[in-house]
Amino acid sequence: MSVSKPLGARPGRGMAHGLARAARRQAIGAAALVALVAMWELLARVLAIPSYALPRPSQIAVILLGRWALFAKHLVYTTQEVLAGFLVSIAIGVPVAIGIVYSRMLESVSYTLIVAFQAVPKTALAPLFVLWLGYGLLSKVAVAFLIAFFPIVVNTVIGMRSVEPEMLYLTRSLGASAWQIFLKVRLPKALPSMFGGFKVAMALAVVGSVVGEYIGANAGLGYVQLVASSNLDTPLVFAVIVVLSLLGIVLFNLVGLVERLVIRWKPGEAQMEAARDTM
Amino acid sequence: MSGPRQLTVSVAVEDVHKAYHGRAQQIVALESITMTVRSGEFLAVVGPSGCGKSTLLMLIAGLLPPTRGAIAIDGRPVAGPYTDVGIVFQRDVLFEWRTILGNVLLPAEIKRLSLPASRERALHLLDEVGLAGFEDRYPYELSGGMRQRVALCRALIHDPPLLLMDEPFAALDAFTREEMGAYLLRLWHERSTVIFVTHSIEEAVALADRVVVMSPRPGRIVEAVDVGLPRPRGLDVKEDRRFHDVVHTIRELFKARGMLWEKTPEIAGRGR
């Protein structure tokens, strides 16, 4: 009937091509990382840099493997803080955003407050939370929440406001209730933007937890790092940086995984690559 | 879908004005519009951009209140959204998170119609517009013309007695646009009253029973022209002598108001 062909109607070859390209790019990235580490090792040996100034990658690896039980214990502690702070910021941030989108009163009150508060460096508040909530888990969860909260609110508001007016006309013309419009239009429309906010929030929750641990704690990776640096145990400081980086990567990708499970209506990486190939 | 339904409705627009509050002054979008759309009629509204054609559709759908005047559908005054309607916009406005079938079924879901019956009807409609087999795909996988055909199916899934179309094919290329006209005529089957807004005179004459000609802002009705071409119609109507006569009549109406020039007018003070 029609001569027009759908985009990606036959993704077979193009997609395989795209996947191959993505894999090649990742391989190049990994190779660069390996080369960088090797150069670091070589230079540290050749120039005989003392390990308290800059430990060699091999020394860091030895500590990571040798003291894994220590890292495991504190990793669990920090991960708890991060996840709790992240989840609380979603549980409070999303309803606040919905309130801002739906209530003009709430919008003028809370959005002004939020924007004003956004200007306050949140890490500067960490000492107060330790003072109020003590050395335990709670003060770190509070700092993580405080930092992660804003990107979630802002991205959810932006997402829910990105609904085209025609979508609202269309649903209203069918007699849709406010609840139906929220569930069938605003929420799904906002999801991609919300997940963008969740990813940023997760990365920031790690920062918040560690900063909280620097201020006052008796457990967690930030605490380990603080103790190590006051002992001039630089290899241990570096080992903690490695563990924290891995934690950040894993948690970030966890959000990305949930995002891919929830949002199935967007072209995937491989298809995007394929589309770029054909251009 | 179940039980007898009213196939078509009549629409009466009585001395309707619509003004918006602009930054400095009031902008009058529509001025004293009075027209009647007969039950089952396919009415086209043509006019230049900014003549308030789209606003008129919003008013008829009850999505905007008129500043003055009244609108009645089948004698009942419109106050608030008239929900027995199908709307097609210039943008397809497909919900990108729903499959093609999910998009077509949206009105049935909102109106809580029987889903198995609606599903069957949706698949039939998609088949009619050449999209059989695409029901599980997502909108991003379809071309612009295909997406607008899905929007057409969505507007018709609940078999509405009134179909409002706001420049539905304006964003498509000329070839796809012709195709869309044919699909519309095939699906319509004279089963609903249609108000079709466009800025293409040829499109209006090829599709409609009657063409209402509007002037630029403030929008007023200049004249209503009967097309008088036989139905059922196909695209070959454009080869008909009468088709060209009606198009010519409408062009003359615009020209008489200085809107479609025969030659590019001299621009005063050129080069100074």
Task: Provide the fold topology.
The complex is a heterodimer of chains A (279) and B (272).
Chain A: H1 12-46, H2 57-66, H3 68-102, H4 104-118, H5 126-133, H6 137-161, H7 165-173, H8 178-215, H9 221-230, H10 234-262, H11 269-278
Chain B: E1 11-21, E2 26-37, E3 42-46, H1 53-60, E4 68-73, E5 76-77, E6 85-88, H2 100-110, H3 115-128, H4 144-156, E7 162-166, H5 174-188, E8 193-198, H6 201-207, E9 210-214, E10 221-226, H7 241-256
Parallel strand pairs in B: 3-8, 3-9, 6-7, 7-8
Antiparallel strand pairs in B: 1-2, 1-4, 4-5, 9-10
Helix pairs in contact in B: 2-3, 2-4, 4-5, 6-7
Notes on the protein architecture:
Chain A is mainly α and 279 residues long. Chain A has eleven helices and no strands. Chain A has a single domain (55-264), classed as MetI-like fold, CATH 1.10.3720.10. The longest helix of chain A is centred in the C-terminal third of the chain and has 38 residues, at 178-215. The two termini of chain A are 26 Å apart. The model of chain A is unreliable at 1-12 (pLDDT under 50). The mean pLDDT of chain B is 87. Chain B has a six-stranded mixed beta sheet, with helices on both faces. Chain B has a four-stranded antiparallel beta sheet with strand order 2-1-4-5, covered by helices on one side. Chain B is built from seven helices and ten strands. The relative contact order of chain B is 0.17. Chain B has 272 residues and is an alpha/beta fold. The A-B interface holds A 1-2, 4-9, 164, 166-167, 169-176, 180, 184-185, 188-189, 191, 263-267 and B 58, 61-63, 81-83, 85, 87, 89, 91, 93, 95-98, 106-107, 109-111, 130, 134, 137-143, 145-146, 158, 176, 179.
